[in-house]
Specification:
There is one protein chain. The chain has no helices and 4 strands. By secondary structure, it is mainly beta. A hairpin with a 2-residue loop joins strand 2 and strand 3.
Length: 80
């Protein structure tokens, strides 16, 4: 069974496509008022040596986002 994002909840998944140090360690989404928001998280260590996650939340675009765990559909070669 696939993960379903519920209202005012979200989830982060390991970023399997991480190709650089600047890319997030985790990616996910959250649902607010029926609209999907993107979440990204990086593992960090404070100057005091404490580990934490730094978060970035991206505002929805027109039409919202697809859930992070949803695989993209393959492009039809006949589409322009």
């Amino acid at each position: 069974m696939a993960y379903e994002t519920k209202e005012l909840e979200g989830a982060l998944f390991p970023n399997k496509d991480r190709t650089s140090d600047k890319a997030p360690h985790f990616k996910g989404d959250q649902k607010v008022e029926g609209v999907m928001w993107k979440i990204a998280a990086w593992k960090n260590t404070s100057k005091a040596g404490e580990k934490y996650l730094k978060l970035k939340i991206e505002a929805p675009r027109e039409g919202g986002f697809k859930p992070a765990n949803e695989k993209p559909k393959e492009k039809d070669p006949w589409d322009d």
